[in-house]
Here is the input.
Amino acid sequence: MWQSTHFLVGHINQISRLEWNTETHDTGHITRSFRSVTLEATVGFTFGVNEDLGLWFGTTTGRFYSFHPYRESHQFIHHDIPGVHLSKGIVFHPSANGILYYIDSLNQRILSLYYDYDTKLVTGPPQVVFDFIEWRGTISPAIFSGRVTLGRMAIDRRFHLWVPLNGGGYILDIDPTRRHPVVRYIGLNSLKLNACVFGGDLLDILYVSSEPYERNIERPTHFEVGKIFAVSNLGDGAFGYAPSDFDMPPPPKRRPSPESHYWA
Here is the structure.
């Protein structure tokens, strides 16, 4: 099992292990990288999550992969989602093995995907559970203007999705099972919200990050940028799940150990 000072990160074009002391906050350093997962030199990672002793991640070119190092076959899989070419992230349904939610960044939608839990292959066509452009057109009066995109989402114990709006300054509480899925929206003092995650001792605080503005872009003086917001008192059931470890299982007999086979 990984120690609490070890984290997996997308580093340049590889998946690497970062050693960082969370108590002293000493400068972290890369200790090892996976040999089996190396992208092209100009390609980076946009998101990554772990599931069932494996990793699922997206790249800057829009490709979507899963990597399960101790499967007998199909360890490293490229998943081709019809009509979807770029994503800001995914979350897994915590109680229904075989369902994940996927952000279609180009069309500003959230899709549900079914995958075979045993083979890790995506099965069936994606289903739209939220269309931001369609929902935006129903709001009167408008609560934001200009270009707005979906940020990286989180899921709570009610299986609701929490989605920050980059350019909009709001986070959405979405019930993907409803015909009108937006339950509520909460405004924050920042326009460029890009990701959120549950934390705190009870996992009842939603931490939302905001991007800084580029140097050549004038930013509004009354908005916070490059900050992390803590949103609490979200109500019953609105708390998250503890993050799971990415464990390297014991190697099968007569196989190289994980240390020698998978790590560089």
Notes: The chain has a mean pLDDT of 84. The longest strand covers residues 29-38.
